Amino acid sequence: MRIVLLGAPGSGKGTQSQLLLKAFLIPQISTGDLLREAVAKRTELGLKAKSAMDLGKLVDDETVLGMIRERLSRPDAAAGFILDGFPRNIPQAEALQTMLCALGRPLQAVVLLNLDLGILFKRLSGRRICEKCGRVFNIYTAAPAALAHCDECGPEHKLIQRPDDKEEVIAKRLDVYEAQTKPLVAYYTAAGLLRVVDADADVNAVFNNIQKAIA
Ligand code: AP5
Fold first, then answer.
1. Relative to the CA of 85, which ligand 1 atom is closest?
2. Digit-coded pLDDT (tens) for 44-57
3. Which among 93, 121, 156, 201 is most buried, taking Cβ atoms within 10 Å?
4. Are 107 and 193 in contact (CB under 8 A)?
C-alpha cells in the first residue's frame, strides 16, 4: 500500500499513521518527525529547518525532497509506505510523482482527513507528547490518567508541548495549510486519487473509515 495522509495540522495524520503502520506493517514516513529528529540532533539540516518550523512556515522544498528521496530508497519502503505531512505543496507533489514513477511504484490513494478549524485549534493546543516514548496525548480528548506524565513511562518523564503548538504559531501553520497545502485537494482529485474521510470522530471510527476509503 502506498498512500498519502493529507490534512491540516492537528487533523490526526500522525495518530492514524501509527494505527495504519501496525495494521499493514509498512513504515510511516513523516517529514515533520524526520525534521524534528534533525533539530534534536542539531545537524546542519536541523539547524537550518528549525527557524522555519518555529515560525510555523514550511521548510524549503530542496531540504524536504532530499530527505524523502533518501527515506523512500530504504528497503523497508519497497513494500509500501504511509506518507504523513508530505507532500505539502504542488511542487512537492510533482516531485513525488516523478520519484515514484521512476521507481515504478506510483501512489495508490491520498486520504484527506477533513476537520473544522475550531477543532483543529483545540487538538493542537491540547496536544502533549511524552518526552521519553513520544506517545501523543491530548489534554482535552485523550488525557492520560495523571496529566503530569505519560501513564506508561512514569513520573520521571514529563509530557511536553511541541514549540509549534503555541497558539500564535498554530494560527500561522493553519494559514500556511490554507495557502500552500489545500491546493493539493484539487490536484489529487484531478489525479483520481483523493478519498475524503471525516476526521471529527473518535480515533477508532476515523481509522475504520480510512480502511474503507482505501479498500
Ligand atoms: P508536522 O509534524 O507534519 O505537523 P503538522 O502537519 O502540522 O501535523 P501535526 O503533527 O501537528 O498534526 P497531525 O495531523 O499529525 O495530528 P495528530 O495525530 O498529532 O510538521 C511540523 C512542521 O515541520 C511544519 O510546520 C513545517 O515547518 C515542517 N514540515 C513538515 N513537513 C514538511 C514538508 N513536507 N514541507 C515543508 N515543511 C515541512 O493529532 C493532534 C492531536 O489531536 C493529538 O493530541 C491527538 O491525540 C489528538 N487527536 C488525533 N485524532 C483524534 C481524534 N480522532 N479525536 C480526538 N483527538 C484526536
1. 3
2. 999 999 999 999 99
3. 93
4. yes
Phi, psi of 7 (to 5 degrees): 165, 160
Which residues 6+ apart lie within 8 Å of 211 measured at CB?
23
What radius of gyration do the chain's Cα atoms show? Answer: 17
Question: What per-residue confidence (pLDDT) applies to 157?
Answer: 84
Peptide bond into 155 cis (omega under 30): no
Cα 129 from chain centroid (whole Å): 15
Concerning whether 36 is annotated as a catalytic residue, the answer is: no
Annotated active-site residue 162? The verdict is yes
Asked if residue 58 has its Cβ within 6 Å of ligand 1, the reply is: yes
Q: Residue 11 and residue 3: Cα distance in Å, rounded? A: 16
Per-residue pLDDT of 103-138, as tens digits, reads 999 999 999 999 998 899 999 999 999 999 988 989
Q: Measure the CA–CA gap between 86 and 165, rounded to whole angstroms.
A: 19
CA terminus-to-terminus distance, the chain: 10
